[in-house]
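Q: I'm writing up a methods section and want to include an example of the input and output format. Could you take the sequence below and give the corresponding predicted structure tokens, formatted cleanly so I can copy it straight into the document?
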Amino acid sequence: MPHPAPRPIPESTDLLTAELVVDMAAPVASAISPDGRLVAYAVVANSGRDGRPHSSVWVAAADGSAAPRRLTDGTARDAAPKWAPDSAFLLFTSDREERGAAQLQRILLDGSEDIAKAESLTRWRGGICDYYPLADGRTVALLAEDEPTAEDERREADGDDAKVWGRHLPVTRLRLLDLATGVVRTVGGLGDRHVVELTQRPDGGPLAVLSWATPELDPGVTTAGLHLVAPETGAVQDLGPVGFEAQSPAWWNHGGEWHLAHLAVTPGHLVGALAVIDTVPPATGPAVEQCNLTVGMSACPTELVPVADGPPLALFADGLDTALYRLDPQSLRFHRLSCAPGTLAGLTASHSGETLAVLMSTAREPRNVHAGPTGGPLLRLSDTSPELRRIRWGVQERLSYQASDGLQLDGLLILPVGRTRDEGPFPLVTMVHGGPYFRHADEFTLTVVDCGQWLATAGYAVFLANPRGGSGHGHEFAAVVAGAVGGDEWTDILAGIDLLVAEGVADPERLGISGWSHGGFMAAWAIGQTERFKAAMMGAGISDWGMQAGTGEWGIMDAALGGSTGWNGPGPHIHDRNSPISYVSRVRTPVLILHGEEDTNVPLGQAVHFHRALRHFGVEHEFVVYPREGHGLHERAHQLDALRRVRAWYDRWL
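A: Here is the clean output for your methods example:
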């Protein structure tokens, strides 16, 4: 049923401003204490005079018996809170001593209401990338690059900084910090492999370590391997290769036998849904067998969380909602415990597994920290953006409709603020999500990229499409776009637009389309296939899949999506057939192109290429480049500019 988002107070009359959008505080990285009593989390906001995001660390009682307490002042990037195994102290990272160089900090909770005093535990030059407190309470595993040598510093000072490809990115290594002495020792048995993630067996046994052969995403993500590391000796046992995009290793025990599970793209595929892959590590040598525990499921795992020595918990994207599952150790199948409308993310569980904390958002409420019994009702602990209750919002509706071939699809519709369906038709902007393995869940989102409510404030209806290629509907739904981007996903989007036109919600003469990343590709693709759209916004989008495979940091995955590479021969190439640049001569739609100057995911050349083609054919367009920005926009001034520019573009053409 339709419902407003978020729930307003009766006198809600304030209008949404761009400043409110970019300055909105949001919780991230919740962590419940092992004893289940407290929940720590970070809150990110555009604070400070430098116009960049800063964050603070907070703590709240898991049962809601005490108000949340802010532990750090938010003048630096304080992030990634994690608890000591005995819940006695809290660790987090901060760049308070040197901007951009995160160091490990410790806070002893004394019950004071004042900002807590943090103790710096590392002074690692260049900072640390991640950390993991070990079960002995005396050691913390660190992930960090090598500190610069005197020769490195001399070369930097002299500008002698030529980069040799293949050695131009620093390797992240596993290191062990002794909390009593401050001594850091490096685990040498992993060689020059790039360590990306780790977890320890709950009984204090070996570390499960995920690594790549190289820090480069391509080919790094295709060379992932699992290892066991003895924290006492640093001895390494290689378990062998694991799947594409391997992540989230999690130990679990059944009948005295330890299993090691992780997430990875469904075996045998580069494009498709994530799956839970399980193995039983042998006493010596590589793992013999890996088992897919989610084969045939229509929901898609998003997070995997260990629980003491019992079976793991997992979050699954399920259509527009998110479900909590637990693995049944007998059947080796996941069983649903509960399902929440919208999004659950950042799941953590107490040592016993009886209490959990999670970030939750529904169509009515922005993302906040919640906690409660596993499978039971969850209590909201944080309230990071109370000012949103004064704002008038567009009604957000769930959509269910059929694709042209009969497949059932879902999506969302946001109506203009203060308007009902009966008052249509309205100008409609279709917003396509990135990925393509992603989704629009029935949650409240308000960012520069997901700016549906920002457009609804200006009188636009907004269609949030969930076409094939996305998550939440199983592997086959996600994998169909491999080598065929712009095919079924495009007709799926059209079917939703046609439905809204037929129902009198959308004005067929006032249609726009926009997206960021893969959504930017779809916007560029759409205007080369039809003249129905009167305006488009292409944010960090791909215009040429062949060029993207050769220059984008995801390389091999982009080649799998586009269908081929330029080095497959002189052509014709599948990627040319799937690239918007091949259809620019047909474009009549005015296009706004936004791109970060330092984007390595989708390099700026993609936007330059499309801009020059549009200019060649005399197509009305505006091309905007944001200095210092990567694949997203992080500087406050740039976020404000993008919000205002996008809305002005649609105001001009729709």
